[in-house]
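Hello forum,

I keep getting stuck at the same step: I have a sequence, I want structure tokens, and every attempt I make locally crashes halfway through. Rather than fight my setup again tonight, could one of you with a working pipeline run this one for me? It's a single chain of 209 residues.
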Amino acid sequence: MLLLNVGCGDSRFPDPWINVDDLYNHFPEGNPERGYLRQRLDCEPNYVNMDISQAWWPGKHPSENADRFDGVNVSHVLEHFDVPGALHILREVHKCLKPGGVLRVAVPDASYFRRVYPEDRRENWVRLFENVNDVSENTTYLQVALFFHQHLQCYAEDTMWCQLVMAGFRPDGIARVEPGQSLTGNPAGQVMTVMDSRPRFSLHMEAVK
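Reply #2:
Ran it on my machine without issues. Output:
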């Protein structure tokens, strides 16, 4: 089994995972932490540095990674890209997956924020959203987590379904799943549930190639 963790950030895992992100550029040029971070990442055999908004696997022929992975996890990444950017990532994921391979994706769920909005006050945040870490002056978690300044789009189930279809996934192979749950029957799907985060307000979906 071989799994790909796209936009991994600090959530990097050993075999059977390959973790990809552009962490070399996490700090600006001239920051002393930049060199230290790069040295540390270079010692991680399961980390590949690449800009996922550009062509994947730079310097390698794309066929080397086509149909390669049993599963791909994309957790709280797509909302940081506009629609064309998110579609680029999903299409690259589709190319990387083996036939029958599974994508597991998570994004903030606009439907949940709408449902709990009448109670969305700071004193209710822990109950409604669980792990809350915010020191802003925002009065709703809708502002904090859905309209976070680095987010470029909002997702709900229908939006995600449409993007997955446009990326090449089979319409009948796309399903909403609960955190910790996989419906595909592919063992990779269940293994990837370890990556489920922010379960209370996240939309989790699976898509089969």
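The longest strand covers residues 97-108. If your local run keeps crashing, start a new thread with the error log.
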